[in-house]
Design goal:
Keywords: ATP-binding, Kinase, Membrane, Nucleotide-binding, Phosphoprotein, Transferase, Transmembrane, Transmembrane helix, Two-component regulatory system. With 399 residues, this protein is an alpha+beta fold. 62% of the residues lie in helices and 10% in strands.
């Protein structure tokens, strides 16, 4: 995109340079090719002018050519140069209203000043245009202000319209850049949430399993072996999750059946059981009606809540309620353990990730210690009911 814009800009500068050279060549033909008097004989015979005046006119002609050639790169300087040359030519025997080049150069430079110049360029161009033509009118003894105003409105007015369109395009480009930066930030946060959920849950389970294995290593070798095998299983699961995340980051979408789902939450309860606790799960409604995005986010939220319960309230009983009703997915996780005081502030990365996931769906999160002990997390994720084709049904399971 930037390369294409750069090529277009170079072509534009080259075209303007060619226009300046062409205008200078046309002016030389007007000066040095013997022609009849200008404007049906009203102008002087340039061929009869002294050589000094021809030299002056040639210098002014070079100024016009430079003004046109640089009108896009240096719009204010070009407008000033064209106006100065136009005013200077008003003091020569050949008024600038007679040849074609002076008026064309003045109009082109002032148009560019208004269209592509900076903040002060429109004022500089307007002063250069009306000032130089006003002086020329006084020098010629004319009062053709209507012509000056007509040309100003017909040529400089569209220049202002071009300026407005360029400003609007610049605003759109800036807005697109801001949105792209925001999208990148959101993507980084999403990846950070996924990494936190995957690694935090897996490492917590592995630490608990390793601790259990160490505790019974001398007294119960079989139990220690089972715990170490569980560490291997969880490690493989974490590696699989990380590989799936890398596939998505490389631009390939994971198949729906390969994504985490609330329909497969048994592995999530393992951490609580390993910590010596019990988990009771109730599912109300048809989970197949939940859109994939809400299903994956609900899985990650439940994963974080159960990991926190296993980490901060080992040995407690955890009640999990998953409800699909109407147009929302509702999750309720509560444990009866005392939990450390640090759980009450709700400032950890886990609870922050839960809130961020809920905010993506316009949902709500309530998390904090209960009055009668334990910790509670309530999450509601709204979704579009039309994303589902089947009616809701009610089922219940307990593990």
């Amino acid at each position: 995109m930037s390369a294409a814009l750069d090529i277009r800009s170079r072509w534009r500068r080259g075209a303007v340079l060619v226009a300046g050279v062409a205008l200078f060549a046309f002016g030389l033909a007007e000066l040095y090719v013997p022609l009849a008097g200008y404007v049906e004989g009203q102008g002087p015979d340039i061929a009869a002018l002294p050589g000094g005046w021809l030299a002056v006119l040639t210098v002014l002609l070079a100024g016009y050519g430079l003004a046109v050639a640089g009108c896009t790169a240096y719009p204010r300087a070009a407008a000033v140069l064209a106006g100065a040359c136009f005013t200077a030519q008003s003091l020569t025997p050949v008024l600038p209203e007679w040849p074609v080049v002076p008026l064309l150069a003045l109009v082109a430079a002032c148009f560019a000043g208004i269209a592509v110049g900076g903040r002060a360029a429109p004022a500089v161009a307007a002063v250069s245009y009306f000032g130089s033509l006003g002086i020329e009118n006084l020098a010629a003894g004319d009062s053709d202000w209507m012509f000056i105003l007509f040309v100003g409105l017909a040529v400089l007015g569209p220049g202002y319209a071009v300026r407005m369109r360029r400003a609007q395009a610049a605003r759109l480009v800036a807005l697109a850049a801001e949105r792209e930066a925001a999208a990148r930030t959101d993507e980084r946060l999403r990846v950070a949430r996924e990494l936190h959920d995957i690694v935090s849950h897996g490492v917590s389970v592995m630490v608990l399993q390793a601790g259990a294995a160490q505790a019974v290593l001398d007294s119960d070798a079989d139990q220690a072996r089972e715990s170490l095998e569980a560490v291997q299983d969880v490690g493989r699961e974490v590696v699989t999750e990380l590989r799936r995340l890398l596939v998505i980051l490389r631009g390939a979408e994971a198949a729906p059946e390969g994504l985490p789902s609330l329909r497969r939450i048994d592995p999530l309860t393992a951490a609580v059981r390993i910590a010596g606790g019990r988990v009771e799960v109730r599912v109300t409604g048809d989970l197949t009606t939940v859109p994939v995005a809400a299903d994956v986010s609900g899985y990650r939220i439940l994963q974080e809540a159960l990991t926190n319960a296993a980490r901060h309230a080992p040995g407690s009983t955890v009640d999990v309620s998953v409800e699909v009703g109407g147009n929302a997915l509702r999750l309720h996780v509560v444990d009866d353990g005392p939990g450390p005081a640090r759980r009450s502030n709700g400032t950890g990365h886990g609870l922050t990730g839960i809130r961020e996931r809920a905010e993506l769906f316009g949902g709500t999160v309530t998390a904090g210690p209960r009055v009668d002990g334990g910790f509670e997390v309530r999450v509601e994720l709204p979704f579009d009911p039309e994303a589902s084709a089947s009616a809701l049904s009610t089922t219940g399971t307990t593990t």
